[in-house]
Amino acid sequence: MGKSEMSQDKKSLVLIVDDTPANCKLLGNLLKKHGYNPAVAPNGQRALDFVQNKKPDLILLDVMMPELDGFEVCKRLKQDVSTKDIPIIFLTAKVEKNDVIQGLELGAVDYVTKPFNEKELIMRVNTHLELKRTREKLQITVKALEEANATKDKFFSIIAHDLGNIFSGLIGLADLLSNPKQGDKEFLVNILQQSTQRGYNLLKNLLEWSRLQTGKIKPMADILYFNEYIESNITLLTHQAENKKITLVSDVDNTLAVFADANMINTVIRNLLSNAIKFTPENGRVEISAKREGNFIEILVSDTGVGIREQDIGKLFQVDVSHSTTGTADEQGTGLGLILCRDFVESNGGTIWVESEQGKGSNFYFSLPVA
């Protein structure tokens, strides 16, 4: 066994459940000798009470005990979701085959007969603790793979659906423009410009998001005076807002500074403002403000738009849920922009959330560490 494994074993908590004090003392000394942290429960009920407060890494459980015997204790532990994965080794003076089978059927991983053989007992404890650690690592790996597959599925669904729509539209517009009899070409050129811009924005978000997921970009935190990035994005999006007669304003103190990656936060601001404009009807208002809350700067992007249904709020930042809504001027989206915002904010040590009610506008908040 390597050094790292031994260091893990030394931290392992082993619960001894036995109504015979001499057995508890013997087992406790034996476990301490081999670097474990032993705990003792003198009966079945005390064992059940113990595991509700502190989860041992392994349980050595006597079979023959008054009131609650080892079989009943094992059964209850395995029926409880919070304790069912704790490995149980039965301690028994019984060696009848039926008793062994009963214990294993209830969920025990092994049994050791009394009187104990020190080498055998420690070997089995070592083995089942190592198996437990391996199982936990596998569970983490499986969860990571499931999340990676969800990410991949979202990525490809966006490419297939949205890029497909964009290129279908571009091909259709190109066909119309190539027709010499087509009259209002200025109108078609305007639609063509909007479609290509949408395709470019989608591609840019996809590239940034995929690079973050694969670890190819890491936050390069610096002191950022927030107002500078807000003003530059308002300038960038003014034309988009004016087309819908939307008032776009900022109420941010120019002394407020955060500690974050400039490119990532610039992308977050751009996406949230663009999203607010998208879902705000003509003559509406989009405002961005900020205030200090403890060790964080809390930024709010509010709008007087259509709002979000309560059942849809939870879908906004989920990569494995496809959720995209048409804007008030039939603007198309992918749902990726908000997911990108979440990932960028969280990678800079912040949080993002939304409060909204259908028909009453939306408030998107995100917080970042104070510089």
Compute the average pLDDT.
83
Taken together, the total number of domains comes to: 2
Order of helices and strands: HEHEHEHEHEHHEHEEHEEHHEE
For this structure, the quaternary state is single chain
Task: Give a topology summary.
Elements: H1 3-10, E1 13-17, H2 21-33, E2 37-41, H3 44-53, E3 58-62, H4 70-79, E4 88-92, H5 97-105, E5 110-113, H6 118-177, H7 185-213, E6 221-225, H8 226-242, E7 247-251, E8 257-261, H9 262-278, E9 285-293, E10 296-303, H10 310-313, H11 336-347, E11 351-356, E12 362-369
Parallel strand pairs: 1-2, 1-3, 3-4, 4-5, 7-9
Antiparallel strand pairs: 6-8, 9-10, 10-12, 11-12
Helix pairs in contact: 3-4, 6-7, 7-11, 8-9, 9-11
Give an overview of the whole structure.
The protein has 371 residues and is an alpha/beta fold. The protein has 2 domains: 3-116, 3-Layer(aba) Sandwich (Rossmann fold); 218-371, Histidine kinase-like ATPase, C-terminal domain (Heat Shock Protein 90). Helix content is 51%, strand content 19%. The protein contains 11 helices and 12 strands. It has helices spanning 3-10, 21-33, 44-53, 70-79, 97-105, 118-177, 185-213, 226-242, 262-278, 310-313, 336-347; strands at 13-17, 37-41, 58-62, 88-92, 110-113, 221-225, 247-251, 257-261, 285-293, 296-303, 351-356, 362-369. The strands form 3 sheets. It has a 5-stranded parallel β-sheet with strand order 2-1-3-4-5, with helices on both faces. α6 packs antiparallel against α7 (185-213), α7 runs parallel beside α11 (336-347) and α9 packs antiparallel against α11. The protein is elongated. The protein starts with a helix and ends with a strand. 29% of the residues are buried. Mean pLDDT is 83; it is low at 1-9.
